[in-house]
Amino acid sequence: MIGFSDRDVAFANDLRYFRNGILYYGKRFDAPYGKKVLAFLGRTYPLLKKIEA
């Protein structure tokens, strides 16, 4: 078990949805949302690196 919270899983799903908007429709997001994404990555990336090792 990786240990992601339900909130983190929901946010990752939102990222997937918004990525499609950026990729296919050219949608842009503001700096506060970008900071929220970076904070999420800061929490989750170390967990994912442990799986790889």
Q: Gist?
A:
This protein has 53 residues and is an all-alpha fold. Helix content is 79%, strand content 0%. It has helices spanning 6-25, 31-52.
Let me know the number of strands: 0
* Oligomer class: single chain
Largest sheet: none
Number of domains: 1
Beta-strand percentage? under 5%
> How many helices?
2
Distance between the termini: 15 Å
Order of helices and strands: HH
What does this structure look like?
With 53 residues, the protein is mainly α. Helix content is 79%, strand content 0%. The protein has 2 helices and no strands. It has helices at residues 6-25, 31-52. The mean pLDDT is 87.
Structural topology:
Blueprint (H helix, E strand, L loop, with lengths): L5 H20 L5 H22 L1
Features:
mainly alpha, 2 helices, 53 residues
